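Marked as duplicate of an earlier ticket. Keeping the data here for the record.
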Amino acid sequence: MRRQWPFVGRQAEMARVAAAMSAPAVRGVVLSGAAGVGKSHLAREIARRSEADRCSIRWVRANRASAAVPLGALAHLLPVELASPAPYNVVRWAAERLVASPDGRRSVLVVDDAQHLDPGSMAVVLHVMQSSSAFVLITVREDREAAEWLSPLWRDVLVDWLDIRPFDESEVGAVLESALGGPVEGTAVARLERMCRGNLLFLRELVESVLARGDLESAGGAWRLSGEPGMTNRLRRLVSERIGALAPDERRVLEVVAFGEPLKQAVVARLCGPDAVEQVEARGLVEVQPGGSPDEIRLAHPLYGEFVRDTCPTLRGRRLRRELADAVQADGSLDDRDVVRTALWRLESGTAVEPDGLLAACRLAWAVHDLARALELGRAAVAAGGGVPAALLLATVLNWAECYDEAESVLASVAGLPITDVQRMDFVHARVQNRAFGLGDLSAAAAVLREEDERITDPTVRRRFTSYRANHHFWSGDCTTALRISSRLRTEPPMSADVEATVLGDAALALSHAGRSAEAIAAVDRTRCDGDDWARQFPVVQLILDTARHYANLFAGWLDEAEASADELARRPGAGEWSMASAAAELMRAHVARLRGHLSEASRRSGAGAAAAEKGVLLRSACLGEHAHTQALLGNAAEAEAALAAADECWSSAVRPFQYWVDVARPWILAARGRVDEAVRVALRTAERAGDDGFRGFQVLSLHDVVRLGRAAAAAPSLAAIAPGTDGELTAFCARHAHAVLSCDGQELDRLSTGFERLGMLVHAAEAAAHAAQAHRRHGRSREGQQAANRSHQLSRRCHGVRTPALAFVRSPGLTPRERQVAHLAASGMAGPDIAELLVVSPRTVDNHLHHVFTKLGITSRTQLPDFLD
């Protein structure tokens, strides 16, 4: 069933139209843009709001059929017969009847698709504008020649001309969220935006197609796109109309570019002829993209390619791919992208391809995390007789694509064959990951490491093997051992850049979670200084480095930097299509959003991460745990419990560090049910286990949760002992918070509230202010206590719905109904005498009420009132 899409965005355009309607000299507004960009939708919304403002709306919808009939577009608004006797001035007669408003309301004439008006209708609309008998709102295609008849009015500034641009990715996301009634995974938004290019008509058709096929589903609190949007019959017609009739040579240009884009201009000209290419460019169907040598040609819209490929016969498609492969290879100077594309064209066209070429292309596709192409090429390389190298590379890609059963089968096919030390390391890596992550069998994974330990003798490979052992200990939950191994490796002389990147990445991961943030970040930075040559050989190391940098910043309390690391991961080539990378980026962003008190965003991000990781086991549990944590802070205990149960169902001992994000959520879910004592016990157990395993970051968070839950005495000694050995201000603030609560130091708690706010941690700042309010009142400082309570109230309001035990103790400002009424009126800018007149009281009474309000809120002026009033 086709759904009615809501109106979203276009606030600047709405404001511009409203200003034009208020200007006496402006007779109308022209909304100009490409077909499907949303001009008509915008016009309907303007008309709806104008009607709500008591305007009389008249609609004219022009089309090609009415363009052949005099006054055809206006026929439904004019009388059936002309007046008797017939008027000499038909244009004026038609204009007066077109916009007549018997009840005296202002008339607004909306003309949709004005480029199709017949000359008579154009004359009538012009007369309406020139006579000022109605305000005219016109939509027209972006080609201004189609509306040349409006140029005199536009030149005389009688009409305002608005170019309606396509929506960008964030606006497309807002439209989708509003239309679907919930958050949409970021990768789904990006893919749909790339295909529709901000064209809302195309977007709607794409969404309808994936909804009908079940490829767009709501899972984990967010809509997720699991398949590629396809061409529906309606979408084919729309795109076909946009392309128009094609001569045979023009059709060939579109087909060549559709199957090969982007292509060098010289390659397209050689395959199609330069004249044909120029003709198609002149029609706006392809675009030349300068910027480098040589220029490249792409289709002007992604859906042109979908349409052309969809309607191209199978045999002709194969021939085109073969011709493209020949032409690109004959051109010479192949870059990495060309190597991958020509291998795929050969494969898809049935042209024989050597396994070495397929293997090289698979490695390049994996280097940019293009898992779909890497898998296709890797399977083909194995089938073509690529032997051990092809099997090992394919198994690696299969593991990171979380296709563990197939990976195990591929590894079994080469087990026992003669291999080099380098190949043995790849074999070990793939098999250990498969046993640990795929099967969740840590003992079997550890057995593989023990068995292979003595077989690797090459020093460089052995260094990488030892680093991988450290990495295995880290993910198994033993950060202490991982740190000891990686620390020893860092003191040894470096070897090749790729091995050092692996060593530094594994070390940074352990350092970041051990509270040694500065060292972790320095290790990550060293890999950048050493260059990126290792990235092609070991592309997954970049994910490890991004992860290490993020958590080093997060556990230190450097939220801006932590968010920047997550954003950097999300922008990596191929990250949007790699579910593991996109889930990791969403999880990282959710951490930052929750700590900032942006709970709605945290809920959306964690839900999107869970949806992206739906078919995997590595990150889904952590994303669901983060989602449960956020819901608990919002007071949604039932939803938090459901998310926690789902997280526990996919719990894996192979990724123990990520499972801590589930464990740190548990106390807050108990607290949301009022079981605070039990919540404290759970938090203390989590802190003890994290400390034993060397995960100082999680230990600090759990101990501080104990303080936030009201049991500072149980956490203060441990926090004080940990603080000197960790980087950043966060641990120090947590330790000071515990001590200040124990010593009932209101002034220190005030300073800590300010400090947490400076770090961007608004919930923590609000709770510290709440504790300050209690401390001040206990010492009889009621004014300071009220100021702290007001600050806590103000900060918690910025967190939009947060509920924690500490904030429950904050007294409301305590205003009487009359004081609140006076405060709201004063906050709106109303003067005291006007308030007195409105409420029928004396000005002195208003002044007294305001004095009481200022005293209770601990403020000194009206300008501060909005910060404390709902």
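See parent ticket for discussion. DSSP finds 45 helices and ten strands in the chain.
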